[in-house]
Write a structure and sequence with these properties.
About 15% of the residues lie in helices and about 30% in strands. It is of the alpha/beta class. Strands 6-5-2-3-4-1-7 form a 7-stranded mixed beta sheet.
């Protein structure tokens, strides 16, 4: 029998460092995910430098606090907070980029953020200290409705 050919499953990544986290960009303003949507453990906070690509050619590094589950290596970033910070940043440096589509690419090493902020690390050098995300996830919140807690009334026998 001929040997089976294995598919090349290697992912194309931008960063030179291995992926660490799974990522979810939370579009729901009324749901803040205090518990992990995968394992139901209590979420923690983690402040990380996120790399965001804004179309067509702006690369931005934002130091933001995200929800974090250490069990699943899951980061949840709130879309409304990200967009507010992106709008503020773009208004300062590139006003023509306001409202453009964007992609959160990954996270930087902590010490690299200080280098980016001081100008010692160029935008081209960011890819050497970038961790891409393992995967991008989507979650739907559970929509709770009104539930009648009274026992059903018994109808009299006819």
């Amino acid at each position: 029998m001929p040997a089976k050919k294995q598919k090349n499953t290697q992912r194309i990544t931008l960063g030179k460092l291995p992926p660490i986290y799974k990522f979810f960009l939370n579009p729901y303003q009324d749901v803040r995910f205090s518990r992990c949507p995968i394992c139901d453990a209590k979420m923690r906070s983690r402040k990380l430098p996120f790399v965001v690509h804004v179309d067509p050619h702006l690369l931005s590094v934002l130091n933001m606090t995200a929800r974090y589950c250490p069990n699943d290596e899951l980061l949840i970033l709130h879309k409304d907070k990200l967009e507010n910070l992106l709008a503020f940043t773009a208004a300062q440096s590139a006003p023509e980029m306001l409202g453009n589509s964007y992609l959160v690419v990954g996270t930087l090493e902590h010490n690299a953020y200080a280098q980016v902020a001081s100008g010692a690390l160029t935008m081209g050098g960011i890819f050497g200290v970038l961790h891409d995300f393992q995967e991008y996830l989507q979650f739907e919140p559970v929509h709770y409705g009104w539930v009648n807690t009274d026992p059903p009334e018994e109808k009299p026998a006819e």
